Model the fold of this input.
Amino acid sequence: MADTAIHGSPELQGNHSSGGNYADLDAQLSMVPIYIVTHASQLPYEFLNPSPERQLVIGFDCEGVDLCRHGTLCIMQLAFPNAVYLVDVIQGGEMLMKACKPALESSYITKVIHDCKRDSEALYFQYGIKLHNVVDTQIAYSLIEEQEGRTRLPDDYISFVGLLADPRYCGVSYLEKQEVRVLLRQDPGYWTYRPLSEQMVRAAADDVRFLLYIYHKMMDKLNNKSLWHLAVRGALYCRCFCINDNEFADWPPIPPIPDDVIDKENALEEEILSVLHVPPGKMGCVIGKRGASILSVKESCNAEILVGGAKGPPDKVFIIGPLKQVRKAEAILRGKMLEMY
Done:
């Protein structure tokens, strides 16, 4: 098993205005070993064999080339409290991913990830893995903001770099992320090269090594209602771009509304994912000039509205949210499509 340790990565700098807590955290996490995994035997037994007696919470992320259904998954990062595992998909291939499938689909292993949509899409279409039981820190951040009375504008999603920089959660300036983004623009095949360079190992590990710390910070803030929203929206976002012909009948069920969050004055509503087909060549009309048309729909409905964009799937609009709000968004979008003719 290859083993590399990060010692005081200079590219991750603490925000000293947060009281110095970051320095202690960074020193602690810098001692956590990093294992490069090319065979399933190098992964922890409790990960490969999910069990209700050994429930786990791990940090999770994926790296690749144009990561989506058509891209190439290259590395899968798993952060445990005592180690970070970089699953080398290029070297380990189908057999290694098959061994990881039960864990990624298990309800006994919580996968903490920032923005799960494209990772889930790549896992589903490339390896038949239905990513399940995620805590998406991008969703959690928005729920905490809403819970604390702050209004989020449409398309105002916190980036991972932004989340790390927030002193309420970490207070880290993630400089190396910017450097890697520049390298990726220059060479999209960056993550395919082997052996992994020191920079690649460090960058991949840094994408997950703070996630468990952030997770615990967020769990302390979220109330029961927000926790239910987090579970439901995580499940729906995992399915978002994984459209199939059976309407997700073979996926795990969406978490029901629990009894302890039923509020008669502010009744919770079932949340759903709806997929609308847009006639070929008409997506531009739906989106509008500089996104003005679809932005107006987002502003009038309390629902998330997503399009596949350049990565696809083309000619589809994905709507996630409370049932009535989703139906309202559907009606407006269908009206816009009728206006095209």
About this structure: The chain has two domains: 2-229, 269-338. The longest strand covers residues 56-65. The domain at 2-229 is CATH 3.30.420.10 (Nucleotidyltransferase; domain 5). The chain has 13 helices and twelve strands.
